[in-house]
Amino acid sequence: MNMKQMMAAALLVGCALAEQQAYAQQPQLQRTDIVKGDLSIPGHEAVQVRVDLEPGAVSIKHKHPGEEIAYVLDGVIEYQLEGREPLTIKAGQALFIPGGVAHVAKNVGDGKASELATYVVRKGSELVQPDE
Could you tell me which residue, 96 or 1, shows the higher pLDDT? Predict the structure, then answer.
């Protein structure tokens, strides 16, 4: 392998690692696992997560291997589901997100926002799947 090929390979690896870190590290967004359990539906599980978003925080565009029910606990969150108009959900309101639908969540309020996300997903699948 010549020097140009080695530099190109190193650049590709570096870019891939940087992209992976961007998905893994979102300092303005914190996910806290609450509970996970098998369902009576073979191969499926329920997962519940608290998601806290600092003011202005935006999630990556992502999807899930099953359905999500998002209940806003605090603040105001705008959800952009692929192929739909943005929806603004306030504390005390909920949203159903069909399985496999790419979406983005953004805190559009003045303070911290939090949601309780409940998922019914295929067991063993990555819960948050980046969608480019």
Answer: 96
Q: What is the DSSP string of the chain?
A: --HHHHHHHHHHHHHHHHHHHHHH--TTEEEEEEEEEE-SSTTEEEEEEEEEE-TT-BPPSEE-SEEEEEEEEESEEEEEETTS--EEEETT-EEEE-TT--EEEEE-SSS-EEEEEEEEEETTS-SSEE--
State the sign of the Cα–Cα–Cα–Cα dihedral 109, 111, 112, 114: negative
pLDDT score, position 132 = 75
Q: Which residues pair with 87 in a beta bridge?
A: 79
